[in-house]
Amino acid sequence: MQSQLFYALVFQTLIPALLLHFPVSVMFGFVLASHGLGIYSCIISITISFYPAIDPLPNFFIISPYRKAAFRCFKRNWQSSEVNQVPPNSKNVVAPANVPAI
């Protein structure tokens, strides 16, 4: 369990470094060197907006109790969304209404 927590901590350290600190540092480096990033500066906004969605994911995939609980939740939702279908040759099939041709 401690190794799982360690790996989750490593990933939760790498995610902000890659999504927040590295892009902003590159942008500041270009600004200090008097070069603009132009259209590529929007990548920073994208990575910052992805951070809250991606940050908790390593916990769900690395730590086994969380992973089992998450998969049980998805499995339960997937099974409840299945619809029981009646075979087409069943007596419960309603015949189409006769619609006059126009």
TrEMBL record:
- Keyword Transmembrane in the entry? The reply is yes
InterPro entries, A to Z: 7TM_GPCR_serpentine_rcpt_Str (IPR019428)
Q: Which UniProt keywords apply?
A: Membrane, Transmembrane, Transmembrane helix
One Pfam family cited in the UniProt record for this chain: 7TM_GPCR_Str
Domain of life (superkingdom): Eukaryota
One example GO MF annotation: G protein-coupled olfactory receptor activity
Q: Does the keyword DNA-binding apply?
A: no
Cellular component annotations (GO), alphabetically ordered: plasma membrane
Which residues are the signal sequence here?
none
- Write out the transmembrane intervals: 7-31, 37-54
Q: Name one GO biological process term.
A: olfactory behavior
| Full protein name | G protein-coupled receptor
Query: What gene does this protein come from?
Result: Cnig_chr_IV.g13731
